[in-house]
Amino acid sequence: MREFWVASGHHLTHRAEHGGLVATPELIMAYLARPELMPPTDACEAERQLHASLLANPLRPVSSADIAALADADARENWTFMMNFRDRLIAAPSLEALYTSLARKGAGDLPPIFVSQLCHLILRNALEGCDDPYTLRAAELFYRSQSATVHDGALLLADAEVVEAQQHAQHDMHASPLTALLQPHAFGEMDVMDDENAWSYWSRSDAHAMVMNIGGNPKARAGLCRVIERWIGHLLGIAVNVETVAAIEDRDWRWFVGLDSEGTRIGNALWNGDALDGHTEERIVALMRLNIEDTRLVDERVGNKPIYLILAMGGDRVVRVKPQNLVAGLPLAATADIA
Predict the structure, then answer these.
(1) CA 247 to each of CA 138, 203, 214: distance values in angstroms, whole numbers, following the listed order
(2) Domain map of the chain by residue range?
(3) Ramachandran bin of 16, using left for φ above 0, alpha for ψ from -120 to 50, beta for the remaining angles
(4) pLDDT for 155-177, tens place per residue?
């Protein structure tokens, strides 16, 4: 079986009999090694001792007094967030159960980066055994923001962080925006995934350096549909079918889920009967139709009608998917027995 997303840390978790991932001390130690938690050279002795003691025992209790003893305000904030997250990880029956709870009840003051990292881990588990690189590349949208651009008439998505780093490197090297314009590809040296290079995804999955041709490659769009099916099936235990559509032509549509803030805004406008101007239409990245196989699980107000999914980009042309919307936003019957 080919490996992918080693950086997710899935090898530092335990897959329980129920199929979900369980946090381990090794996973907590990986977090403790992150730059945000490594004591800087000017850290106080209390912070150094706290960090060292946790490396020796990642599960040791940490009191509010331990954190209050830290001299630096930023350090106190970082450690408060981390210990809160650690305690939730350890207490949860599975990472999937924790994520589902956060999606339904809200993450509170938990930083978004922790929720994204949870999503990364859970997706890696849900996609175990997947042999389609288009699906794996599409899954990156769930936990990493994407920069959008149109190139040769097709909408392309590239990892926003990688694009930003590449732009900084080009600026530092050449100090001229003209250099970027002369690059042979839309996103500089990044490759657009196609049938000739898709095989290389396995060796570079953690580099996030392949561009998704969501506007011009049907396999890319199909990959996104497969990710959504796996995500819902894994977290909720519900079988769904998802397909892309060109437009919402159903005059009696009953439900939609915005896959991001802009998609939700656009969906609300359509729901209220508002006409979309050309600028707003251009922000739509994908429209999909979702059907829940067992209609007994669906809210009676929706019945056997499809659920539309709307993915869009913000005004800055960045796509920021909220996969938690697929957990909390489906029209499920109150009596549905779900995970």
Answers:
(1) 21, 36, 16
(2) 6-126, 133-211, 225-328
(3) beta
(4) 999 999 999 888 776 655 555 55
In the block, which residue shows the tokens 């938990």? 110
Long-range contacts of 158-162 (CB under 8 A, 24+ apart): 158/186, 158/187, 158/190, 158/211, 158/212, 159/208, 159/209, 160/318, 161/208, 162/190, 162/207, 162/208, 162/209
Q: How far apart are the first and last CA of the chain?
A: 28
Name the pTM for this structure: 0.91
What sign for the dihedral angle of Cα 307, 308, 311, 315?
negative
Tell me: the pLDDT tens digits for 28-67?
999 999 888 899 999 999 999 999 999 999 999 999 999 9
- Give bridge partners of residue 292 from the DSSP assignment: 240
* 204 Cβ contact list (under 8 Å, min separation 6): 210
Distance of CA 154 to the CA centre of its chain: 23
